Amino acid sequence: MAAHTPPWLKKAFAAPNALYRHGMGGMLGRRFLQLTHVGRKTGVEHTVVLEVLRYDKESGEAVVISGLGEGAQWLLNLRANGAARVSFGRSPRRAEVRLLDTDEAVAVLTRYEQGYGILRPVLRKLLSPLAGFDYRGTDEDRRRLAETLPLIAFRPA
Question: What Pfam families does this protein map onto (predicted)?
Fold first, then answer.
């Protein structure tokens, strides 16, 4: 998360980690996934729980967003070695990693936001500190967000 992210938002985003730590990640369904990645310097495995913006039942592909942008440690690790395992509360499975281009990312963000219905204003308030600007949910804002915060797809290998 960006340095200007409020502490309460950091705590809210960390809540799903506790469920995974206690073996209850499956309760979150396909809404969150646990990513296991390997440190680019240490070679040590790390895990992080990420919200899923899109899940394709046919292919098993899940798309997440890097709330810290290009500087997220998990993203830097994936870029360095590409090794990823993904879990939806069960045993982690090896996954292929793909960075979405801007147009596909905008399409994912549009559908994700539409899924919030009347709660879209709340989502926009949550996205603003991550984006680093007042996110209003316009097409221009979605494109700017997609260019600031990468969207990454994980597909079972």
Answer: F420H2_quin_red (PF04075)
